[in-house]
């Protein structure tokens, strides 16, 4: 939902000209996978982009933290969208950042910008896992429908429905699970952030079929959580860590989530 936008300080408003300047921004992606930003004209990063469009956007998988978190750095050039494209950009943003069509979307004094060119992408999947992403492969990739169809609503519904059951299923005679939160979903499964006391892990629960709708995800997870034996047969078990790092085995959609 948010990323770190790194721009180059201009000499217009600050003496640190040429230094990298990092800031946290919300973003969405258009149908081609290009990031769109809603930026205030008063923000330092907006002023920097007006002087030099070169920047990077660093995106992490939601729900993870620590140096072993999967993340991607997108290199590109950001420019303001023309007036006639502002409303379409607003629709893209609203679709990603609201939890329902009736929710009001408060913009403030902002203008929409787009990373018109993506020159490179650098992926880090945790300790020892790094890779430059082929831009043509990125552009050709197709996101899972369940990822782009109001993902916040999907995760909220799944957590409200299954969090208690997951805590019980993840507990054992030796230890009781203190918290279980579904932090991501794709067509092949869910990732569950699990806490035992001060220790965290992430469990991968796989599906037996490709899941494309919220309703089908609920039905399949209802079956998976119906018994301990059924649950354990789908648990691809965790990459365990201490409280300072959460291990990420892969980054399925953080580098590209299209919201059309």
Notes on the structure:
The protein folds into two domains: 2-141, Roll (Pnp Oxidase, Chain A); 151-234, Split barrel-like (Alpha-Beta Barrel). With 260 residues, the protein is α+β, with helices and mostly antiparallel strands. Helices cover 26% and strands 31% of the residues. The strands form two sheets. Strands 1-2-3-6-5-4 form a six-stranded antiparallel barrel. A three-stranded antiparallel sheet has the order 8-9-10. The relative contact order is 0.16.
Number of strands: 10
**End-to-end separation:** 15 Å
Give Rg in angstroms.
20 Å
Proportion of strand residues = 25-35%
Give the domain tally: 2
Task: Give structural attributes.
260 residues, alpha+beta, Pnp Oxidase, Chain A, Split barrel-like, 2 domains, six-stranded antiparallel beta barrel, three-stranded antiparallel sheet, 7 helices, 10 strands, elongated, disordered C terminus, Split_barrel_FMN-bd, CREG-like beta-barrel domain-containing protein, CREG_beta-barrel, Haem_oxidase_HugZ-like_sf
Write the SSE topology.
Layout: E1 2-8, E2 20-29, E3 35-39, H1 44-51, E4 54-60, E5 71-80, H2 86-97, E6 111-124, E7 130-132, H3 135-140, H4 145-148, H5 151-170, E8 179-186, E9 189-196, E10 199-206, H6 214-224, H7 228-234
Antiparallel strand pairs: 1-2, 1-4, 2-3, 3-6, 4-5, 5-6, 6-7, 8-9, 9-10
């Amino acid at each position: 939902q948010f990323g770190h936008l790194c721009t180059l300080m201009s000499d217009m408003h600050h003496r640190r000209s040429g230094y990298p300047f990092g800031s946290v921004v919300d973003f969405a992606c258009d149908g081609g996978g290009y990031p769109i930003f809603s930026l205030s004209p008063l923000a330092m990063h907006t002023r920097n982009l007006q002087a030099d469009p070169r920047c990077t956007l660093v995106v992490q998988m939601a729900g993870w933290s620590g140096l072993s978190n999967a993340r991607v750095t997108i290199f590109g050039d950001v420019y303001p969208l023309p007036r006639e494209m502002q409303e379409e950009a607003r629709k893209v943003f609203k679709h990603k950042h609201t939890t329902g069509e009736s929710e009001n979307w408060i913009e403030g004094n902002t203008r929409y910008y787009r990373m018109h060119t993506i020159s490179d992408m650098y992926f880090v999947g945790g300790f020892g896992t790094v890779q430059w992403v082929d831009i043509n492969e990125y552009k050709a990739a197709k996101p899972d429908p369940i990822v782009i169809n109001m993902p916040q609503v999907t995760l909220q519904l799944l957590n409200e429905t299954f969090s208690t059951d997951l805590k019980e299923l993840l507990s054992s005679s030796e230890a009781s699970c203190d918290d279980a939160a579904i932090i991501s979903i794709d067509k092949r499964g869910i990732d569950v952030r699990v806490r035992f006391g001060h220790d965290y892990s992430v469990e991968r629960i796989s599906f037996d079929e490709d899941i494309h709708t919220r309703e089908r995800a609920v039905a399949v997870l209802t079956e998976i959580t119906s018994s301990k034996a059924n649950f354990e047969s789908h648990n691809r078990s965790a990459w365990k860590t201490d409280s300072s790092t959460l291990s990420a085995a892969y980054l399925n959609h953080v580098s590209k989530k299209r919201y059309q």
